[in-house]
Amino acid sequence: MTTATLEKTGIPTGTWVADRAHTRIGFAVKHLGVTTVRGEFKDYDGTLEIGDDLSEAHATATIRVASVDTGQDQRDEHLRSADFFDAERFPEIRFESKRIEQVDEETYRIVGDLTIHGVTNEVELEAELGGYVESGMQDEERIGLDITGQLSRKDYEMKFNAALGSGNAVVADKVKLVLDIAAVKQG
Asked: How crowded is the C-beta side of 175, counted as CA atoms within 13 Å?
């Protein structure tokens, strides 16, 4: 790590891998127009590569759809079905960044391709650097990133829904993405 790079980008150079014990890949969606269902994916891999020039930075993630967990087994099985993710035909969600831009001292814009349900669309995510630490106990470097975004289920051909008498939908089209990333520097 060089001090100049840390001051320039806020994130030290190197390859960073998501720490599953301290990372949450979450989402939130309105249900019946009145409550929010929150869930997460428990099985995933994520890597962030930062070089001397942030324009060459690259992020990737692979999420196993079968690991979806909303805290309710019946709902989780429905989410894995052809009505939603169709985990049997499309077992993974994939993300690959196209560019990472620094907005200010602690905020980054990540633009990339997100593939869900066999459909790929460009998404824009906002990442806030939560912090950086060199841990003497485990002789490792760690960073924290809070990443948010939003997507439309329809854009990924996930159209299951039913209208209610109130005019609300059973499941909203808009899905909020909430990722709390802890990453450990490799090598």
From this structure: 19
Q: How far apart are CA 179 and CA 38, in angstroms?
A: 12
| Amino acid letter for position 135 | S
In this structure, the number of other CB atoms found within 10 A of the CB of residue 101 comes to 12
Q: How far is 162 from 83, CA to CA, in rounded Å?
A: 12
Cβ atoms of 73 and 64 within 8 Å: the answer is no
Three-state secondary-structure class, residue 9: helix
Dump pLDDT digits (tens) for 15-67: 999 999 999 999 999 877 678 999 999 999 999 999 888 888 999 999 999 99
**What is the number of other CB atoms lying within 10 angstroms of the CB of residue 164?**
11
At 125, the amino acid letter reads: L
Check residue 161 and give its pLDDT: 64
104 Cβ contact partners less than 8 Å away, ≥ 6 residues apart: none
Task: Domain ranges for the chain, please list them.
Answer: 3-185
98-113 pLDDT per residue, tens:
999 999 988 999 999 9
- 3-state DSSP assignment of residue 84: coil
**Domain 3-185 is in which class?**
mainly beta
Q: Are 24 and 42 in contact (CB under 8 A)?
A: no
* pLDDT band, very low/low/confident/very high, at 1 (cuts 50, 70, 90): very low
